[in-house]
Every structure is written in structure tokens, then in C-alpha cells.
Automatic annotation (TrEMBL):
Organism: Erpetoichthys calabaricus
Similarity comment: Belongs to the protein kinase superfamily.
Domain Protein kinase: 13-275
Family matches, as InterPro entries: Kinase-like_dom_sf, Prot_kinase_dom, Protein_kinase_ATP_BS, Ser/Thr_kinase_AS
Pfam families cross-referenced by the UniProt entry: Pkinase
Gene Ontology terms, MF aspect: ATP binding; protein serine/threonine kinase activity
Name this protein carries in UniProt: non-specific serine/threonine protein kinase
One GO cellular component, as annotated: nucleus
Amino acid sequence: MACFKLENVEDLYEIGDVLGKGHFGTVRQVREKATDSLYAGKFVKIRKSRSSRLGQERESVEREVEILQLLQHPNIMSLKEVFECKAEVVLILELISGGELFDFVAEKDILTEAEAIEFMKQILLGLSYMHSKNIAHFDLKPENIMLQGKDVPHPNIKLIDFGLARRLQEGEEYKSLCGTPQYIAPEIVNYEPLTVAADMWGIGVITYILLSGTSPFQGETDAETMNNIMAVNYEFDQKHFSQTSAMGKDFIEKLLVKNYRERMTAEECLIHPWIKPLNKKQVAHRSRSSINMKNFKKFNARRKWKVSYNMVWACNRMCRMKLLCKNAVKDEEALRQCESDQEDIDTKPASLIRRRLSSSS
């Protein structure tokens, strides 16, 4: 069971600047008053009723909290504690300040495969730990692979955002159509029962992009992308993979397999010769090979633009929804409840009211 504290988060933490915003909440830097330690506070608005159009379902938040409380690993974002008030849950999370891995890589002029492998190894260690507990992430993509800090010789990888993650119970069937199109596995597109192997397909896509600077299945539309995924329609174009080792390509090929039972597991990935060379010759091949930085920088710039565009589109859509709710006729009371998920602000501290108002502005 997820453990929630019923105390007022502002009694224990000083609420700071906004670090990011999502569909259902805001992430702010928070300072623990007792220790002066900095954390990230994820403020999630909870739906008051099934008819509500704003906020996240409580069941979904509870599931994310339960999963984070189970995961204690150096390569996975950690959860300190959770607070609950009337219409909001606040997750106090480890503050991860190094930015996205792909942004860090894009700042470099050159990166050898050996250096890229060190990042992939950390991702796989985190995944292997998750999968050993029958937990699948189901949303592996560059935005969810962060650095704890980047001003160090060997940055530490952190997997974040467990909103779509699931603990898969034996004997239970789980299906989902969620995820980002270019990273999802064929069984997601087909709406088939899912396993942790869906994450390994995502690892194959991420590795392909990291080494070449191109996306293996990206089409002009989501439909085209999904058709490419179902056909496993990709290739190692010499133009993009001229600097890639044969072992690197083999690693990808053993992950981008339509039959999930035939994909490498995270444990098998960790002992693949590309990750763990068997001899000096393999070590030399890794060191001589490098990632296609020219292509990678272009890919990352397009990716960042698309993320920014989607955020603006989502914000505009939310604003339109709010206007529609406010202008709805009075006899459509049930519909207008989409804006009624506010707490009774008369009973709340002034600082909380100010924070709510600034969050919605």
C-alpha cells in the first residue's frame, strides 16, 4: 500500500521555483526546513470525481507511489515521502539537476562508443533491478533518462517518470496503448498482453538513436511510425552507421525483435560483448568506434523543438478547456464540475493560495 502523510507539506518544506510542468501537475524545487536539503516536489492535482476533466486519477498516483517506494537503486530516481491534502498529492523526490542524457551528449564534439556504453550500462543496471521485481517502466525515452549531475568526470544516470510503470502480477494480463509512438514495442501497438520485454525494445530504439543520430521507425505521421514498428522496418544505413562497431549493431538487432520472447533481457544485455567485451580485440573495436555526433546534434535539436511545441499545444488546449468550462450554461452543472476540483481556499494558508494561483497563471 502507498504511504501518504496527511500533514501540510508547507509546514516542513519551503516551496521554491517551478522546475517543470505536466498535464496534471507541477514540479517545484523544495527545501526541507529541518535540514536545508533540496528536493523536487511533484504537486499532482487529483480528480475529485470520475466526471472531472482536470487532474489525475488517485489510483494512478497511488500506483506510481507504490512503485517508487519499492525501488531503491543508484540509477533510479528516489522518493523521500508523500503528502496528501484535499485535492492534491505532493511527492518529495530526489532532486536531479544534471539535465537529460541526450542534451549532455549533444554538447560534446566527440563521443566514443566506449563512453556511450558506460551510459547504457547504467540504464541497464537500473532496468535489470526493476525487472527483477517484475516492474516495467513502459515509457523509456530520452526525456526520462537524466543525469544526477553533469559537472563530474563520470555522470550518474537516473531513470525518472514512473507514471506509466506497472508491477506485473503473475497470472494477471496487462494491456496498454500508452507511450511515445517512436519508442513503443509492437505488442503495445497490437494491444497485446505486455511484459517487461517491452522496455527492452525501447532500449534498442534508444541505442540506435544514440549511435546514429537517427530514429529507426520514425515516420511522417504516428500511423506511419506504427506501421514501421509492426513491420520492424529499419536498416543500418551506411551514411549514419559508418562509425559504428559490428558489436553495437548486433546489440541493437537482438533487441529490435518483434517476438518479445526472443529479445535480450536486461541481464543478457549486461553480458553482451558490446557492453562487456570478452577479449582485448573487442575492447579495441569499441574504443575506435564513435557515435555520429553531426546527426545526433540534429536529432536532439528536432526532439527538443517537438517537446517544446507539444508543451505549448497542451497549455493552449488546457486554456481552451478552462474557458469552455467557465462559459458553460448553468443547467449543465455536471459538465461544469471539471473546474470544481479546487479545495476550499478559505481554510488554507495564504502561502498555499498564492502557490495555487501562481501555478494556474
